[in-house]
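FIELD: query
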Amino acid sequence: MEHAELIDSAEALEALCAHLQQQRWFALDTEFVREKTYYPKLCLIQVATAQQVACIDPLHISDLSPFLACLHNPAITKVLHAASQDLELFYCLDGRVPAPIFDTQLAGALLGYGDQAGYAKLVSAMLGVELDKDMTRTDWSQRPLSAAQLRYAEDDVRYLAQLYPLMHTQLSETRRLEWLASDFAALSEARHYESQPAKAWKRIKGHQTLRGPQLAVLASLASWRESEAMRANRPRRWIIADDPLLDMARQQPNTAEKLARIRGVNEGSLRRYEGALLNAIAQGKQLPQEQWPQLSLRTRLEPPQEALVEVAMGLLKHQAHLHQISPLAIGGRHELELMIQGETETALDQGWRARLVGGVIRQWLAGELSLQVSQDALILQPLAQQTIQKA
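FIELD: result
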């Protein structure tokens, strides 16, 4: 593939999309900025097939519908790396999430490249190419784009288009391609990208320090701030920062004078939002107790349970080593603690993780599997088979 073509006209976009519609897959990446906005601002779309690489300039093309038709064509697989942010951007663009998806970061974990392997790491390991990352912090909203910016942008899909066939083949040969089907499908579920003001309090650092009516007030304040940030298309912190919201929830001021004593609220925000803040605080205070938000508090493990978690962690690492997968790509201590405490629907009970680890741990917890050591290695022995051998 030669250097990327910059697509900055409707005619060029139509020609590119005619090519894309003939493909079974294409590599996809985006560049965006959101430092000054609530919603990400799309600045560049990069695509690549086995024959072509191109950069679409959405700041010069008002109608992206030909490309969106490609993006939402169910017969074309969209190949991305660490897809969530790109998918969120497209959801914000027209309320739909592209599908089907192939995420090379998730695929890399099952191919032994570690948990959450970066794009540059995969390109280096699989293709022997070292990527230049000098443009990581560039402002993609500025025009014109330099030659260096375009080279950087095109590399994000040029090598993605080379990784995909290799990964697809390796996953197929190891019979792991179908393992990822549920993970890829989950990425395209719109619920992951929907703004939910009612749940915004859960993102505020320090909310765990509040209880009861304080948490109700915080939830009311956070919901108002989320809705206001969406309406104004401004970052949450530009409306009101987290720390002042926490202090408001603790102190629950009911007058403008008391509100003004909260640290961290500038005069401009106070003048603009004084009434809305006092109203949100009042609404939170009036919320009936049965409607107060509840913290997801895990019961503290007893010493015997702690011991079981340690053994379960050993089983997870054993299975990860056996299948040459990073343990963190499978799960962590949190999921194991939930299993030991009786939770029946953990991440380790879903999809390929259940097949590799979750099922084994469930068998062991049920007394159907014994652990033995042979030549310094862990051996998992079904108890039914062990009984037959003794007989």
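FIELD: remark
The mean pLDDT is 93.
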